[in-house]
Amino acid sequence: MTSIQEALGAAANEGIITSAQAEKLVPFLLDAKMAAGGGERRVAGPAVLADDALLAEESEQPRFVRGFHDILITIGVVVALVGLWGIGNLFAVLPAIIILAEILIRRQRLALPAVALTVALLHWTGMFALLVIEVAAPEELDTLINWLMVLPIFAAVLAAFYWRYRVPLALAATLLALFLLAMDIVLVLIAKAYGSTEALAEHSGLVSSVFLISALGLFSAAMSYDVADPTRKSRKSDVAFWLHLAAAPALLYAMLSFIFLRNFSSEWWGDATSPADAAAVLAIVIVFMGIGLIIDRRAFVTSGLVSLGLAIWTILQRGGVAFSDYFSVTVLAVGVVVLMIGIFWQVLRRAIVSLLPAGITSHLHPVYQAKV
Length: 372
What we know:
Elements: H1 2-13, H2 19-37, E1 43-44, E2 47-48, H3 53-57, H4 68-87, H5 90-107, H6 111-136, H7 143-165, H8 168-194, H9 199-202, H10 204-228, H11 235-260, H12 275-295, H13 299-302, H14 305-318, H15 326-343, H16 345-353, H17 358-361
Helix pairs in contact: 1-2, 4-5, 4-6, 5-6, 6-7, 7-8, 8-10, 8-11, 10-11, 11-12, 12-14, 14-15
């Protein structure tokens, strides 16, 4: 199954067939292969499943690297751009990025160098945006107003890069910039309504609500790409991967902000954090891990590890549990949790998804059914 998928994916990347045709050919060729071998494909719930455990473990494998050749080229790209940035200026780097993109992305279609060049473009865009702010507004402006100038630049540059080279990270970054821009516009309007940006710190609940709505919008965009490609064979799955990577921590800390309601100028997790607050954080992190299992996205597990550790540490230290080294115990507990979820990912996911109605599971990534 994996070899068939990789072969068709390579054919789609070379333009021999389209991505849609490749997506339709994978199950057709698999059925033909199973029929020739006299086997049957297994079914778990409403979804048709692959007869390969390896596919289940690679269910969230972005198409970054196809071989060490990609890694070697990427190292060259990074070193060359760093050197060029040191001896040149801002406007000397952009032509280099474009030339390398034409060769490595558009012609050779190398995945990892495409990611590296997109990150380089992100860095270049940030530096260019700062230059624009210095020229257009030499006087010091409010941070929210600065972002109103910066985010459209990010969205325009990354959208053009995606239009030309079809790099999933570029599209995900474009959507992220647009969501941040929408959130920033709302915050500016709220500040104008109250007459000062300082009012935002006094109405942290309202700010948290705006943050949460924006995070939910980003998560919805990620899920729309996931639902559009439940078998994760096309570029849409890679876009969803990057969007989930941004949406997971945004959604988590938007929820946590309602617990603490901290002002932006103060520390997030301070000495005033109570065991009850820590228990609430722990519950939210567990829910997020459950969401990650349901949609088969590990970003929802990794995004909560820091909060999980802080919650465990607070509960142990202030809950009367006596340990000589709270830090080591906390790190051990987080490590055990990660290992248990990682090792038993498919088992846990199968148990949770089996409780969901077929109308939902039919849109999710198929659950691997273990051999009996």
